[in-house]
Amino acid sequence: MNAPIRVTNNLEAFWMPFTANRQFKSNPRMFVAAKDMHYTTADGRQVLDGTAGLWCCNAGHGRPKITEAIQKQAAELDYAPAFQMGHPAAFELASRLVQLTPQGIDHVFFANSGSEAVDSALKIALAYHRARGEGQRFRLIGRERGYHGVGFGGISVGGIVSNRKMFGTLLTGVDHIRHTHDLTRNAFSRGLPEHGAEYAEDLERVIALHDPSTIAAVIIEPIAGSTGVLLPPKGYLERIRAICDKHGILLIFDEVITGFGRLGAPFAADYFGVTPDMMTVAKGITSGVIPMGAVFAKKEIYDAFMTGPEHLIELFHGYTYSANPVACAAALGTLDTYAEEGLLTRAADLASYWEDAVHSLKGLPHVIDIRNLGLIGAIELEPIAGQPTKRAFSAFLKAYEKGLLIRTTGDIIALSPPLIISKAQIDELVTTLGDVLKTLD
Ligand code: PMP
C-alpha cells in the first residue's frame, strides 16, 4: 500500500541548495516516488531519470537489496560511534571497498558527502607530509572549472567563480591550473579528445613558480562533471601523474562522479590506468540512498600515521557520522546490487550504443558540441548574448514537462543515467531531448 503523499503550500521554509526559491515557487517541480529508471511527480507523471538523481543513483531507484539492508541495520544497530569504537559493518565495508580499488590503495576513511571527502583528503595530504617531516609542503593545486564540493577546502581548490566569490579569502596557498576544455580543436569528439595533453604542462609551470618542495597535493576530477563534462585529452592524466611523481607531490583524483561504474570500470583510475595516491568518492557508494563519502588512500599514506612518532599515531579528524552503521549497510547493499547485476562494467557494454545515441543530436539547432564517455554525455549549446544560461535551463524545463530529467550547467546539458538503463530507454531519452532541442529559441 502506498503511503499518503505529503504536500505543503509553504515553499519558503526550506531554503533550497543551489536554487532560487523565488523562481522555484512560481513553477514547483516535486518528485514523490521513484522506481528503477523513473521518478513519479506530484501530479502523477513518470519522469525518466537521465541524470541518476545528481549523478548518484547508479543502481537506479527503489532497489530491494539496498532498502532491505537499511531497514535491517536500522532495526539492529542504528548508530554507533566510530571514535574509539567500532561495529562490524564499517570494517566489512572498508574491506569490500579495497577489493575494488586499484592495487596499492588499501585504506578507507569515511565521511558523509563528497564535500567532506574532499576536505578530508586535503587535510590528510597536509598531515601526511607533516608526519613525514615535510611540513613545509602546504600548497594545494586544483584546476579552473574544477568542482570539489562546497566545504572551504573544496571551494578553495575548486575553480567555479560563483561558488567562491561570496565567501571571502578561502584557503591560502592554493593555485590553479587551466582546464582542458578546448572546442576549437576538440568539438564533437567521440570519447577522449585527441588534442590538449599539453595542458598538463601548466602544472610544471605552476610548480616552477613556487619552490616545488612546498607543494603538498594536486586535486583533479578525472572528468570534470558538474562544470559540464570536460573530458581529459588523451595522455593528459598520465602526464599529470608523472609530474606529481617527479616532485614528490600527492595526486588526488576526485572520483565523486566517476566512481562506481560510471565509465564501465569501478573507478576512472581503472579506466585510465592511472593510479592516484588518494581518491575521493561519494554518491554511487550508496547509490545515493544514504549520505556517505570516503577517501581511499595508499598504504604509504596510512602508514605515515600508523608508524609515526607517538604524538602522530592518530589522524585528528573525523565526523560523528563517519561510518554510520545504516550508511555502511546501504553501501554494502549497493555493492551487492552492483556485483549481482554486473553494473560496475555495464557502462562499458553500453558505451558505443550510448555514444551513437547522443551524437545523433548533432546538427540540431544551437548545438555546438557533443561529448561522451562511458555512460556520461554532454550537449553544449550556443550561448545567447547577455543571457548565458537561459537556453539550457529552458531545455531542462521543457524536458521535465516531456517526462525527462536532465541536468544543466551554464550552456551545457549533462546526461548520466542510472547504469541499469536499457537501450530502449536510451533511445527514448535521446528522442525526447531531440524534440526539446528542436523547440529552443
Ligand atoms: N566532488 C565532485 C567531483 C562532485 O561532483 C561533487 C558533487 N557533485 C562533490 C565533490 C561534492 O559532493 P557533495 O555534494 O556530496 O558534497
From TrEMBL:
Transmembrane segments: none annotated. The keyword Transferase applies. The keyword Transferase applies. Keywords: Aminotransferase, Pyridoxal phosphate, Transferase. PROSITE patterns: AA_TRANSFER_CLASS_3. Gene3D superfamilies: Aspartate Aminotransferase, domain 1, Type I PLP-dependent aspartate aminotransferase-like (Major domain). It comes from the Bacteria. InterPro entries: Aminotrans_3 (IPR005814), Aminotrans_3_PPA_site (IPR049704), PyrdxlP-dep_Trfase (IPR015424), PyrdxlP-dep_Trfase_major (IPR015421), PyrdxlP-dep_Trfase_small (IPR015422). Its cofactor is pyridoxal 5'-phosphate. One of its GO terms (molecular function) is transaminase activity. Belongs to the class-III pyridoxal-phosphate-dependent aminotransferase family. This is Aspartate aminotransferase family protein. It comes from Labrys neptuniae.
